[in-house]
Amino acid sequence: MLVLLSRTDNSGNWAEKGRKDGLPSPAYRMRAGKIGRGDLSKLASAAVRHHARHETRLISNSPVITIEADVETLTSTVMSANTSSEFKNCFENAVENYCRRWPFQLRAGGRRILLERPSVMGVLNVTPDSFSDGGIFFDEKSAVAHGLEMAGEGADFIDVGGESTRPGASPVSAREEIRRVVPVIRKLSSGTHVPISVDTMKPEVAAAALDAGASILNDVSGLRKRKMRKLVSDRECPAIVMHMLGGPRTMQNAPTYQDVVYEVCSFISGMLEESESDGVDVRNILVDPGIGFGKTVEHNLQLLRELDALHSLGKPVVLGVSRKSFVPALTGEKEKRLEGSLAAALYGCAMGANIVRVHDVPETRRALLVWNAVSGNASFAP
Questions:
Q1: Angle, to 10 degrees, between the axis of helix 338-350 and the axis of helix 361-375?
Q2: Which residues contact 85 (CB under 8 A, 6 or more apart)?
Q3: Residue 142, C-beta contacts closer than 8 angstroms, at least 6 positions apart
Q4: 2-99 has which fold?
């Protein structure tokens, strides 16, 4: 059973409950899927009674109802629908999750990581062919130096990857990936207290990286491999579950969705369930919509517009928009991606992103300092 909430406009406060002063109430969209046809029918009838906009359609061969209304009408519609107690509990959990954006606490071995403000994750590609900085930090010395530089510039996390996941990228062997990342992670972990994540889809690489000092797993394939889920369970490490359509070599071959927001969240929800069944403490899981991983420009924009829907899952949200191809597609400036990346990252933070994964650490941190000051988040200090 899956219930998602998102704002259909971007004005006002995230958790505003409606207005009594004559001003417009914010509108919300509820998607409900993986529920019985009886509940679907009751929800549709209640939506008609409350004059709420709604539709039911098949998404991935499963019926999903979408209802749009102000928060009071939406709540009245659900609570008067005489649906199953299971659905009402799911709806109430989604509301509770949606309204909770901060704080989150992760457990990385004996270490506690508190997320109480937008955090910056610096990207360190130890590869010859990554889409943005491939080859620049391919040797160990330059990679370690850049990682330490990002830590000094204010990165809250450093994400080390040894295999390019750009569209069309060819895979590398686990042995080669280990050769690239393990020495770098070992030296960074001894040279900085900043938590290090390893960006890999291979359980054997993840295990070697954790042994070398990494404390977080960033799996762009979304913990699809049971061996990876068992590793996360055994090591009790935080893990980022990202959505990707297919694999790097094929993901941009005409990606198609019926409802990209619902389908991305449904995949992640399913992986959370599978992970929990394999012993993973899902309180230690973060989620990432996978901007640019099997999505068109419009898919990416829709996911950004409704990034808040991911909070219905109750997990911290990681957002990677830095230097992605949708930026020059919008600006027409292929080589100049900084300003567009910052704009997308700040919009993501306004929609509730807990961590932004970026190449340009000092620029992003300065932008967040101003954004947090303007938005009244005094906890974000230089």
A1: 40
A2: none
A3: 136
A4: Ribosomal Protein S8; Chain: A, domain 1 (3.30.1370)
Residues 6+ away with beta carbon under 8 Å from 16 = 25, 26, 71
How far apart are alpha carbons 268 and 366 in whole angstroms? 31
pLDDT digits 0-9 by tens, 155-191: 999 999 999 887 877 889 999 999 999 999 999 999 9
Q: What is the pLDDT of residues 293-338, one digit of tens each?
A: 999 999 999 999 999 999 999 999 999 999 999 999 999 999 999 9
Please identify every residue annotated as catalytic: 324, 357
Q: Please state the domain extents for the chain.
A: 2-99, 104-375
pLDDT of 277 strictly over 70? yes
- What would the mean pLDDT of 359-368 be, rounded to a whole number? 97
Residue 378, φ and ψ in degrees, nearest 5: -70, -10
* Tokens standing for residue 302: 């829709």
| Count of H-run helices and E-run strands, the chain | 12, 14
Residue whose structure tokens are 């360190």: 124
- Pick from 104, 124, 165, 175: which is nearest to 292 by CA? 165
Rounded distance, CA 82 to CA 70, Å?
Answer: 20
**9-23, 41-55, 68-82 — which one is most confidently predicted on average?**
41-55
CATH architecture of the domain 104-375 equals Alpha-Beta Barrel (3.20)
Q: 356 has which bridge partners? A: 120, 319
Return the ∠ at Cα 200 (arms to 266 and 207), rounded to 5°: 110
Q: Decide if 268 contacts 287 (C-beta within 8 A).
A: yes
- Return the H-helix or E-strand segment holding 113: strand 111-115
DSSP string across 33-82: ES--HHHHHHHHHHHHHTT-EEEEEEETTEEEEEEEEEHHHHHHHHHTS-
